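FAQ: What does a multi-protein file look like?

Like this. Sequence, then tokens, then the next protein.
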Amino acid sequence: MKKNKAFAAIAVAALSLMPLAACGSGSGAGGYEIAMVAKGFSQSFWVSVHKGADDAASKYGATVTFNGPDNDSQVDKQAEMVQNAINKSPDAVAVAPLDEAALTPALQSAKSANIPLFAFDTAFDKNADLITASVKTSNTEVGKVAAENFIKLLGGKGKYAVIAHSQTDATSTERRDGFLDYMKENAPDMEMVGDVQYSNADQAKAQDIASAILQANPDLDGIFTTNEATVVGAATPVESAKKSGHDVVLVGVDSGKAQQQYIRDGVIAGSVSQNPYQIGYKTIEVAVKSLKGEKVDKSIDSGCFWYDASNIDDADVQQAMYD
């Protein structure tokens, strides 16, 4: 390990007293130094990732620095942060890539310096051979979990519609296909009306689509949506339908503030959430195990979970929620 380890531990301890905008650290002074660069920093999703990473660092005796650009449009800034992290010669670097091409020079730099690389939240494609392991949510599993609960809510019978947020984004298509495949295999008595509709992650467009579907299908029993903007958009016409006596089961993905409130109010029946806390925790866990010479899987699923009005305020659920 590095000669300046003691100094680094003192510096990290001092920085931990600063506001969140500086960096985070685990309490494991004298252990591995792991630099994490996320897609963002102050957004609640990344705050939860950060917390999970710090807790894992404390358990495994590591020191973690956590950084990220102000928003996910700052591709060049993230690439600079990754290169700066590599320049400090940590034991490992973990990245949630915004733009793989922009990060390629930094990844090559890490390879030249023999610094192991890990991915979190999003895997690398063309540079996958440079990555030791990736920790992310299985969006196919998200769709399956949504479908499983959707079937239970409707008693395995009825008509339903699907509104996805993108025809091309893998996040959307994997959730969509995971849902549809599970429905096809496990709900033979349920019928999908029309084709999958797409909101382009636009709340207003999702509202218009849901309104049109409900008007065209007065006997509709349920709607599945694939992200926060889409489910919140669909919630307005669903709420109106409920008030007029047409009870529609609305299910979504993600956990924004408005979405959580709609669940508490009974407009959205429930949603599937990623677990950003576990993304952070498992990233540090797998990095430490790999650094110790243990064999690790190339891809690690950080998990997802179903939440509704019955469990939304449970401590373990709230720990993983993000706005």
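And here is the next protein:
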Amino acid sequence: MELDMFASYHPYGNDTIEKDWKSLAELKHTKPELKLLGSIHSPLLMQVAAEKESRETLTENMLKYMERYQLDGIDLYFGDERFGPHEEFYMLIEELKSRFTAAGHSTWEVNVEIEISRETIDHARLCRLADFVHVVGMVERKPIYNEYSSTPMAKATFDINELKNITLERALQYWIDNSCPADKMALGVLFIAQPFTIANGLKNGEEPEELMTLCSVMKERPICSYVELCQIFKETEWKMGWDDMEGLAPHAIQGDRWIAYENEASVGRKGEIARSKNLAGVFVFSLGMDDYRNKCGTLYPLTKALIRSFESPTLESDTTP
């Protein structure tokens, strides 16, 4: 779950966010093992990390908020896919850990969320400094035509440094082979859909256009939540397909509309891979995008599929959309 870190940025004001934080903290009374982490998702994080004074200011502000709202750690994500973590970012992690310990919070976690194919990473150092690393695959899936299919598909493999077109399993193994312990990694799973229009034709090398009008949520970005998408699928007819043979990347087509999304089979398969690699678990963005209102026949279908994938005695191979 992504939690807003700074009250001043909350659209409903300080009173509302204060109440929300307290409600979350009260969950610990019935679930004492529960950990609540704040999340900072910002491309500006790298700029803040670049200067010692700004790192210190951020650290002190985070300490105050975390003590005030009884948090157990922080999750960092800088977002800009063009650059890998630089020296100052590693320093920020070290300084956060050191300051938390000095303040009497040695158990507080400092976690990092990062794309699995991000280059120029010191994997060993990142995984040594952070308590957990949330590696996210398939962040962006744009449809293209290729010589093997008459249907537009998105790339479902990864390029990591010298390795090209490797599967998710192999990408995770690359991290492990580069001294990132499996038990410090969690596989990121995104409960979102990415809609595009292919009306202009992709066979001539054009980029697909992002479809901004399909969903009512997150209109500033071409992203749909699963809870809304499943209702769209119920109301109109779509052709379902897959971008891969591993059951990880489903898509849906209706006329000139093309959507990359997740379904129960695909998230279950990701859970199976995380379990087979002995990872620490999975990291979901976000539970509020699952079918929390039971609009499509099952309450929290994606979340439950992930849970089943860790409870199942054998790995399943069913990839039916």
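Q: Is there any per-entry metadata?
A: Some entries carry free-text notes. For the entry above: Residues 14-30 form the longest helix (17 residues).
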